[in-house]
């Protein structure tokens, strides 16, 4: 959707943040000369999306940090410093988020406004881990290369015996400069790059990109395209939720259920193949519409939904009937609702901690909020609650696909002709999508000539990584892998 | 009885013993893994895969941490040696390589030899200085501490009843004072079996198939081992599996009516079959159970201790 920028002062922003029940969608900058704050009020629907610009005075690249009052901003402010060299002074834990030692000390990749004269970065590139001191405390480094075939990330545990006192997470190993590259490629290629931002979330990324570009280019999308996009998004959610429940079964040792879930994920991906011609739903959603394959199997989808609903029943019942398994997950890695709100958690992990926030019901994208299923929430905030939310969402997703297929309108679906697309100059647009991990956000800004000047992506994992570090405190070391799996976070989506 | 037949008897005994010592431990593991795979609807690796794995490991080049001392390299050798020694002492099959009475398989000696093997494994794990080895060792020792009383008590009450601490006499199928004590044998067998699940790092104490270092117990200790060093550690572990399962199976075998087992061949077949069926039972448990939370493990071990205490009460009363 299109958003209008409102220029305010930092004091005004503080007041707005203090008074209202906003969540922070994004907190970044255009070129280093200002701050951009995208605030979301899910209760007000599309009207609740507001963008504020806070100009930084010429030659000054710092402002008083807001993190202490609004912990949601913790990583946003660190990312802001990494990318733009804007110093949130007084930030309690300022260190680099993405860029490690090999980068030059005063290199800020997205900054276009010149740095103040004689500027020298206040911190070096080395990652200083928080040290816990005391008798019997030891540090346990894990990663960045892990035993399974997963993405790289470094975890530093400070433990007392078997108990984790503190966990620090160092990411950035997968920093590829995606946001910068997105401003460089021509528009007709941009959606390929946008959907590859995090490859397990490709549909959601493609959708967020399309939503943003369409509102900048003022392209109308047919109802049929919107429904087909929703179906693709739900298929992605279905496949990934099945995989996540299977992954949890692997980690607690229920390998039989894990292999059944692995097989059923294949069925869900097969649905993606029927709809889009790609098991990973790549290249389907394009600005303006969707690209249907020549032999599309749309009419076969209903049968697959019924089959999956039938075949999922048994492994999921086995998972939920296993008292030892439930016992293993109950009251482990608990995150209270108040903390979840403070950290602005999103997605199934947030909903398991009582956050009643599902983008599908809040903001319009694809066929939502009309076709949005009821929000699934839980209050306990433990591993079991997160898995329960996932399992309930598997069922609600199957229902949603059924409903979308039943009500599928007729109409054209072809994508936009890129030779005619012109983006509105000096404008902002945002695509907010409920990916399977939660709120995914693409914020696009154009310059005077209608070129993309800034492309900011906020992946749901970005909100939830800090919450993981909090949830695992005072739990056992051996519980961390389970807790980590129950959050199911993306490294590449965070590192960009 | 002439000397020739006696020698023939010894040769038959020792030969079969040696063959089963070489074949049975890796085969048991192979069968266990295959059964687990079938429970998961997988075809699984061939039954002989543990042999192939060992052959592969023995051919590889070894990597040793620069922080490791000689202890790290020697520990698997000590471990394997102790296991081979134990295989001669522990009555894990009805066969004995050494005729009765030549050496005494004292139950305290056995417990302490098991402890010695563990001691060196733990030292080797600490030696490389890796954090994983450190907490793996700490967990192993904690579990050993909890489970040792159960093993000790189970064996001791059999010994008390038989009036000897020599296990080869207790399990000799001749001890009259223990004949017909089905309840005692059964409870001791159950106690030993539950303790072996913990001793052998099987579920629900440890997940032998996991890749998550942070949850490992036994595997975390041998993460740094490679090639021949790892092969030795694995062989030692395989033998331990056969020994402990065999020991608890021998208890169960004494519950069977004695006329069924009067024959040497019948006993040998039942011993071998018993170890394999216990392995199948473990595969069943591992397919249904999950790994317990670390703090819940003492509750599980309490079952083994309870079995041991009950068998002790029986041993005292009869």
From TrEMBL, chain B:
Localization per record: Membrane
Membrane topology: Multi-pass membrane protein
One Gene Ontology term, aspect cellular component: plasma membrane
Transmembrane segments: 15-32, 70-92, 98-120, 141-162, 182-200, 241-262, 268-288, 300-317
Lineage: superkingdom: Bacteria
Keyword terms, alphabetized: Membrane, Transmembrane, Transmembrane helix
Protein name: NADH-quinone oxidoreductase subunit H
Source species of the chain: Candidatus Obscuribacter phosphatis
């Amino acid at each position: 959707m299109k958003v209008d920028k409102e220029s305010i002062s930092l004091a005004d922003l503080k007041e707005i943040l203090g008074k209202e029940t906003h969540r922070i969608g994004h907190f970044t900058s255009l070129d280093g000369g200002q701050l951009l704050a995208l605030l979301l009020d899910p209760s007000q629907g599309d009207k609740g999306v507001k963008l504020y610009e806070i100009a930084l005075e010429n030659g000054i690249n710092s402002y008083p940090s807001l993190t202490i009052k609004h912990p949601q901003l913790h990583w946003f402010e660190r990312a802001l410093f990494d990318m733009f060299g804007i110093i949130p002074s007084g930030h309690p834990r300022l260190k680099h988020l993405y860029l490690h030692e090999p980068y030059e000390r005063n290199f800020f990749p997205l900054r276009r406004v010149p740095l103040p004269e004689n500027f020298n970065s206040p911190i070096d590139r080395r990652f200083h881990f928080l040290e816990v001191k005391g008798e019997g405390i030891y540090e346990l480094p894990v990663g960045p290369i892990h035993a399974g075939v997963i993405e790289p990330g470094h975890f530093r545990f400070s433990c007392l015996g078997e108990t984790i006192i503190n966990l620090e997470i160092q990411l950035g190993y997968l920093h590829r400069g995606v946001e910068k590259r997105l401003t460089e490629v021509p528009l007709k290629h941009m959606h390929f790059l946008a959907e590859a931002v995090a490859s397990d979330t490709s549909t959601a990324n493609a959708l967020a990109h399309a939503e943003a570009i369409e509102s900048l280019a003022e392209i109308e999308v047919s109802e049929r395209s919107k429904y087909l996009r929703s179906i693709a998004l739900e298929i992605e959610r279905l496949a990934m939720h099945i995989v996540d429940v299977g992954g949890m079964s692997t980690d607690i040792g229920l390998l039989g259920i894990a292999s059944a879930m692995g097989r059923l994920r294949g069925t869900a991906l097969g649905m993606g193949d029927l709809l889009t011609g790609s098991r990973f739903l790549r290249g389907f959603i394009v600005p303006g519409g969707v690209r249907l394959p020549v032999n599309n199997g749309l009419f076969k989808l209903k049968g697959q939904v019924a089959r999956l609903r039938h075949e999922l029943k048994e492994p999921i019942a086995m998972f939920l009937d296993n008292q030892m398994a439930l016992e293993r997950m109950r009251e482990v890695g608990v995150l209270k609702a108040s903390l979840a709100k403070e950290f602005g958690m999103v997605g199934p992990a947030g909903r398991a901690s009582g956050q009643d926030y599902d983008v599908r019901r809040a903001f319009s994208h694809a066929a939502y909020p009309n076709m949005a299923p009821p929000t699934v929430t839980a209050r306990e905030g433990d591993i079991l609650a997160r898995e329960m939310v996932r399992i309930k969402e598997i069922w609600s997703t199957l229902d949603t696909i059924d409903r979308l297929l039943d009500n599928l309108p007729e109409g054209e679906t072809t994508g936009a002709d890129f030779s005619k697309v012109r983006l509105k100059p000096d404008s902002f647009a945002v695509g907010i999508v409920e990916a399977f991990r939660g709120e995914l956000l693409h914020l696009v800004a154009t310059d005077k000539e209608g070129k993309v000047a800034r492309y900011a992506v906020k992946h749901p994992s970005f909100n939830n990584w800090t919450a993981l570090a909090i949830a695992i405190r005072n739990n056992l070391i051996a519980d961390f892998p389970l807790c980590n799996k129950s959050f199911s976070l993306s490294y590449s989506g965070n590192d960009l | 009885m002439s000397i020739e037949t006696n020698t023939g008897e010894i040769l038959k005994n020792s030969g079969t013993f040696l063959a089963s010592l070489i074949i049975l431990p890796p085969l048991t593991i192979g069968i266990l893994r295959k059964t687990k795979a079938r429970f998961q609807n997988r075809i699984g690796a061939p039954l002989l895969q543990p042999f192939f794995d060992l052959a592969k490991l023995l051919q590889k080049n070894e990597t040793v941490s620069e922080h490791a001392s000689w202890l790290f390299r020697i520990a698997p050798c000590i471990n394997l040696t102790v296991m081979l020694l134990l295989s001669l002492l522990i009555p894990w099959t009805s066969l004995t390589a050494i005729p009765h009475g030549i050496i005494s398989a004292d139950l305290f000696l056995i417990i302490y030899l098991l402890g010695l093997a563990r001691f060196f494994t733990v030292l080797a794990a600490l030696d490389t200085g890796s954090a994983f080895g450190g907490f793996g060792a700490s967990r192993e020792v904690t579990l050993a501490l909890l489970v040792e009383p159960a093993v000790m008590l189970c064996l001791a009450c059999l010994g008390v009843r038989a009036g000897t601490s020599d296990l080869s006499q207790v399990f000799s199928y001749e001890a009259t004072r223990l004949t017909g004590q089905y309840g005692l044998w059964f409870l001791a067998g159950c106690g030993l079996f539950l303790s072996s699940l913990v001793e052998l790092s099987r579920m629900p104490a440890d997940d032998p198939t996991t890749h998550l270092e942070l949850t490992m117990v036994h595997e975390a200790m041998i993460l740094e081992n490679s090639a021949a060093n790892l092969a030795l550690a694995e062989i030692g572990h395989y033998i331990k599996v056969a020994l402990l399962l065999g020991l608890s199976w021998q208890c169960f075998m004494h519950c069977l009516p004695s006329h069924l087992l009067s024959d040497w061949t019948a006993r040998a077949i039942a011993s071998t079959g018993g170890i394999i069926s216990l392995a199948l039972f473990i595969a069943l448990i591992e397919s249904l159970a999950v790994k317990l939370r670390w703090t819940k493990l003492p509750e599980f071990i309490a079952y083994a201790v309870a079995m041991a205490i009950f068998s002790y009460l029986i041993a005292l009363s009869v």
